[in-house]
Amino acid sequence: MPNTQELEDLVIQVRRDILRMVHKVNSGHPGGSLGCTEFFVALYNEIMELKDGFDMDGNGEDLFFLSNGHISPVFYSVLARRGYFPIDELNTFRLIDSRLQGHPTTHEGLPGVRIASGSLGQGMSVAVGAALAKKLNGDNHLVYSLHGDGELQEGQNWEAIMYAAGNKVDNYIATVDLNGQQIDGSTDDVLPLGDVAEKFRVFGWDVLEIENGNDLDQVIAGLNEAKSRTGKGKPVCIIMTTMMGNGVDFMMHTHAWHGKAPSDEQLETALAQNPETLGDY
Amino acid sequence: MTKYTDQGKQDTRSGFGAGMTELGRTNPNVVALCADLVGSLKIQTFIDENPKRFFQVGIAEANMMGIAAGLTIGGKIPFTGTFANFSTGRVYDQIRQSIAYSDKNVKICASHAGITLGEDGATHQILEDIGLMKMLPGMTVINPCDFNQTKAATLAIAEHHGPVYLRFGRPKVANFTPVDQKFEIGKALMLSEGTDVTIIATGHLVWESLIAAEKLETQGISAEVINIHTIKPLDDEAILASVKKTGCVVTAEEHNYLGGLGESVSRVLASHHPTPQEFVATQDTFGESGTPEQLMQKYGLNNKAIEKAVLKVLKRK
Predict the structure, then answer these.
(1) A122/B contact by beta carbon, under 8 A
(2) How many angstroms separate the Cα of B40 from the Cα of each of B82, B221, B291?
């Protein structure tokens, strides 16, 4: 298992990957990707039990589903650096004939991806189904998922939230990225979410919070705490507060970088704030 | 050529239920999901015999489709059950992204399709579902014609890897195809050979086509009746072989003429062998309340309508 410094180095390298990927094609979603970098690095390198290689069924290992598929840059970078596919393939992000589509898909056979996502609000149902399959198969591994906070405006989530609690899907940990931003502005301005943690609680979930989802130690501690709460009759939800655009000063405290790529000069500034650690692709 | 006779009226949804009962006993990977319509889908025996392999999701069809997609990850073969309207239009994007685009082995099983749902009226009578589903890349679309064929189709789709839309109905109709028939996905069935006109039918309209063919025979018209149970992939060869012989075609389906079997047949003919065609189908309209028989009469979906269409298309040869 990597030590803390190695994970911190990986976080910075993943940020660089994200910035360079979206800059190259002048499209993609850096804001939410940067906000969830610590979460992905921790999940794939510290938390999940994973087999070598990839098969779709994923029996005998933990599974992860990305519901807010637009933060594909962080997903692709972490998958590549975990060894699912060659790191150089990050060069093909959003290009024609690439396995790294704008939003993740199984359709091009990219290892590490088990469901297409992009149209929001569908990932939790899929994760619940995969968790049910694990129970049927007598597989004690866990299912994880990540959701944007704005994404909770989609009604299907609440069907899944109700189902998972009502049917005691307790081998499942859903994390909500609470960054308070969506395309048109703050979630409070677009459609207020209210108290998200309390909403999950009253639906019957075991809820815990990570106050700073950009603090690697807090993320690891929170995920470990969530793991310890599985198997007790309730699905587990982590409300993780993050900063969209974290690690790049001019991308923070705004929703402006939800789906916008940096210019050449902006890229240079952003990369200077995140000096190369493990080597660029 | 077998002479088809009604072995006793049964509903096609009960054929689905019988198929599920058998799958419950023979294929441990088959699981079933239902959105609060267990009685309508006739799957109580499957549930009684395999309680752990059944998931009652409540009135939440979008979630049902997503859970079904997730269940395939781990090797399960999920069969979802609700009315055709709630199996397609209501959850189109869930099917599109989480099932079709994600290449998931989900069987979307849809009861109460078409206008013969009857008294509940147009909110529940979907006449657009074949079109919606056949447009999805990789989706197989099947609309069996009677109890026996629906049971056989239910068994066959469990052996087929990939997403399938299986469409069946509510009313009791003639059960005329063989018991324990082998069901070959994508293979048209020649029910009655003829030389003057080809009638290509799916679902409840197949029996009506056989009646129409008998009536036409008394007028000296030799009609060939082909049962297309698989609308996608379509058996182009069987269709072309028949129309090359007869020179005209009538398609018959319980669906809007836009987007249905008829349009699929037209595409084949336009590409390979342009042929006069008449469409027995609803004419871009919603349905309404009434008995199945009254509705089929009013919306031109019975043997009389088929006979009339044949007489019309013969004049265009």
Answers:
(1) yes
(2) 8, 40, 17
Q: Report whether pLDDT(B2) > 80.
A: no
Distance from CA of A136 to the nearest CA of B (A): 8
3-state secondary structure A206-232: EEEEECCCCCHHHHHHHHHHHHHCCCC
Place of tokens 């990050």: A90
Report residue B250 CA to chain centroid gap. 17
* Amino acid B237: pLDDT: 98
How close, in Å, is residue B135 to chain A by CA atoms?
Answer: 17
Most B-contacting residue of A59, A64, A110, A122 (CB-CB within 10 A), to test interface: A122
The DSSP code for B28 is: T
Residue entry with tokens 């072309």: B240
Tell me the nearest-neighbour CA distance from A47 into chain B, angstroms: 21
Q: Which two tokens stand for residue A197?
A: 């943690």
**ipTM for this model:** 0.97
Within 8 A of A127 by CB-CB distance, chain B residues are: 70
Residue A146 touches chain B, beta carbons under 8 Å: no
Condensed to tens digits (0 to 9), the pLDDT of residues B61-72 reads 999 999 999 999
A38 contacts: CB under 8 Å, gap ≥ 6: A11, A213, A214, A215, A216, A219, A246
Q: Do residues B254 and B203 lie in contact, with contact meaning Cβ atoms separated by under 8 Å?
A: yes
Q: Which residues of B touch A118 (CB under 8 A)?
A: 97
Q: What pLDDT score was predicted for residue B1?
A: 47
- Looking at the partner chain, which of A58, A116, A133 has a beta carbon nearest the beta carbon of B71? A133
Residue B188 identity: A
pTM of the predicted model over 0.90: yes
What's the half-sphere exposure (Cβ side, CA atoms, 13 Å) at B201? Answer: 33
DSSP-based three-state secondary structure for A9: helix
Q: Are A237 and A207 in contact (CB under 8 A)?
A: yes
Would you call A133 an interface residue with chain B, using a CB distance cutoff of 8 Å?
yes
The C-alpha atoms of residue B189 and residue B229 are separated, in whole angstroms, by: 8
A268 vs A248: CA distance, rounded Å: 11
Task: Give the lowest-confidence range in A129-133, A272-276, B2-6.
Answer: B2-6
For residue range B88-123, what is the model confidence (pLDDT) as tens digits? 999 999 999 999 999 999 999 999 999 999 999 999
Q: How many beta carbons lie within 10 A of that of residue B276, not counting itself?
A: 17
